[in-house]
Structure formats: structure tokens, C-alpha cells
Amino acid sequence: MVPLFDYLKRQPSFAHSPFNEVDGMVLAELSSIKFQELNFPGTLRELDHAFQWWDILPSRERVSVRLPSYHLLRLAAKSPRFQGIRVVDYVKEVGEDFQFSATAYALPHNPGLTVVFEGTDHSSAGWRENFQLILGEIPSAQRGADYLCQLPQLPLRVVGYSKGGHLASFAAMNGPQDQIEKVFLYDSPGFHRDIFDSEDYERITPKITHLMSHRGVVGHILHHREVRQFVSTGVHTPPMNHLGYTWRISGSRFKRALPDPRALAMGRGINRYLEEASLQERQLAYETVIQLVGREPYIFGTATVSARAFSHALRSYERLQPQERSLLHRLVTTIKEEL
């Protein structure tokens, strides 16, 4: 049984049990659903015709949809806890170099709104934006802050998983801080030193709860002010241990675990490389990575990476200039030194 699926089947309504960290992950996973296709606004119960929509979706478009999220919606629509949650606003924007999506939920017996920022989808633009983190702040970040600022003046709970957590942090720092009551992050990359040292980050930090896979690496990338708590995951290999569906649950909390030393070391190696590299070197590294992963970089974030994707990466590596290869070798060497 998938822990999140089982959680939806056994939890009482919000009238009997307050919002918790697992609820945030459920909403984060639901945020990958294209609610514009489901005639929102409406409750999750009212929006439960996702599978009819899935059935008529052309197969060539299904790669852009996370099927587990639609299974989650089906269960949420039947759950006493989740069926009354109302999707009150949804926005999705994808440009040449950015991918941004936010969903605003109204929860029963909860004042205000819960705003969830989507993580990386399967668009090439979304994955290119991920790699832009090595350069500095990403294009979607300010969109997140602007989104919070245009919402009604109500109490806000802000949530994000993976890149969505990075957007949630940035939006909370630069949005209406007085309205924000809590920020939930899940396995999210941090920030470069300029933002890490900012007063805005310092002010919002006490409101942040950050959970990450005890074997994950994404949440170790760049710098965090908040204390991270580590969750036991049922799988050893990336990217699967990054997925919330693999995180173990006990009651209304994720099961805690000690961080894996190798994951910590990989995070230190990546961060050391980024700290030591000049902006010009990081720009070249970004361009090199884009060359390696090709036009469909999302395939490297899926559970099964195709032989074609690996073949493309190998051919691209053979075409790299000596300076480009040197940058990659330096990254690998830096990580090895930390292991």
C-alpha cells in the first residue's frame, strides 16, 4: 500500500483533527493536476471526474500528467477529511525558460487559504529552470511572491514540494509576511548566499517546517536557514526516494530517520563546487548540462530512464569541448572528496 493512499482512507475530518505535515504533502502531490481541465472552482469531491478526463486524453499527452496524483484525487474525493476541500484558484504558466503553477485551497474548519506551489512538471522548460538554480534565483520565484500578494487579505498557509518548496520559501520571504501563518516545505533546494543572508529569510524562518527524505539529495542543495527534519523512505535509489509517495507515515506524522551520510556528502560536494565556481564557470556548467540532457531533460527525473536518453547523453558528452568536460570532472571529483 502507498502510505499516502492509506493515509487518505483512515484520517478523520478537519473538525476532529487539525492540519498536519502529511496533509501538506497530499496537497503538494495534488498540485500537479491540471485543474483548469476540471472546471474549478469546486470541491475535490465535485472535481472527481479526473479519470474520465484521463481516459479521453491522447496518449502522446499523458507523459505530462502524473497518474498517481489522479489516483490521489480519486481517494481524496471519497475521504471525509479531503472531499470538502475547495479549489478556489489555480494558475499555470509555462514559458521558454520557466514553469510556474499555484493552487489556492479553502479547507473545511480552517480559516484563510492554503497555497501550494507545484514542483517541476514534465515540461522541458521546467527542467531547464531547475538547472538555472546553479546561476542564481529562477524566473518563477518572483511570480510566486506576486501570486501571494494578489490574494485576498486572509491568513495564509504556504506549501511546496521540491522546486515548489523553493518557490514557497521565496514567496513567503517577499510576499505578505504578516498574513503567513505557516510554511511547509518538502525536500526543497535552498538559496545562494545573497538570499540566505537576507533579513526577509531570517524573519520567515521561524514559520518554516522543512521535511526531506533521509536518503535524498535535493533538499541538501544550496543553503537553508530552517532546520530540516528527515523522513524515512521505503526506497534507496534516487529519484524514487525524493517522491512523497515513498515516505513512511505513522498516524498523522511522517516517520523520522537519521540522514544518510552519503546523501549529506553529495550535498556538501555540490555546494562546495557551486561556492568555488565563478559565475562564468557556473554559466558554462548550466549550458553543458543542457547539452547533455537534450530537449527532454525531464526523462532523467523519472523512475525509469530510457536507453535513448542515456545514449543521447553519451553522444553529447563526446561532443563537449575540453573546458566543458573539465567542469564536469571537477564536480564529480569534488563530490568524491566529500564521500
Describe this structure in words.
- There is one protein chain.
- The protein is α/β, with parallel strands linked by helices.
- Helix content is 40%, strand content 15%.
- The chain has helices at 3-10, 21-30, 50-56, 67-76, 124-131, 140-149, 163-174, 193-196, 199-204, 261-276, 279-293, 307-319, 322-338, and strands at residues 42-43, 86-94, 99-106, 113-117, 156-161, 180-186, 208-213, 228-231, 249-250, 253-254.
- Strands 1-2-3-4-5-6-7-8 form an eight-stranded mixed sheet, sandwiched between helices.
- Helix 6 (140-149) packs across helix 7 (163-174) and helix 11 crosses helix 13 (322-338).
- The protein is globular, with a radius of gyration of 20 Å.
- The chain starts with a helix and ends with a helix.
- The relative contact order is 0.10.
- The mean pLDDT is 86.
Core attributes:
globular, 40% helix, alpha/beta, 339 residues, eight-stranded mixed beta sheet, 15% strand
The main sheet orders its strands as: 1-2-3-4-5-6-7-8
Q: Indicate the mean pLDDT.
A: 86
- Helical fraction: 40-55%
> With helices defined by DSSP (H or I, 4 residues minimum), what is the helix count?
13
Shape: globular
**Subunit organisation of the chains:** single chain
N to C succession of SSEs: HHEHHEEEHHEHEHHEEEEHHHH
First and last CA, distance:
34 Å
Structural class: alpha/beta
Major beta-sheet overview: 8 strands, mixed
Structural Rg: 20 Å
Beta-strand content estimate? 15-25%
**How many β-strands, per DSSP?**
10
Low-confidence stretches: none
